[in-house]
Acylphosphatase
Amino acid sequence: MASEPHIETVHVHVRGKVQGVGFRMSTVRRAHMVGATGWVQNLEDGTVEALVQGTAEQVDAMLEWLGRGPPGAVVRGIETERQFIDKRYGSFQQL
């Protein structure tokens, strides 16, 4: 019987020109492609906040993509914080 893969959860803030460029919608699309779960939303300070959950490979793929963003975005930096939570997300969505 195979055990469930280890699931990582990372809270992310993305700074730069990340609003008004389709960042959230593109993040949802990318998460679906790599199989990550969680959520993404705009914040009032002009940053984008996300919670990414998945295997180490899925989380790494999402963090790499979040560091670039979609065409039109200019990512100036990302801050990540590993979280230890019991909640498991079933999908990735835009809040």
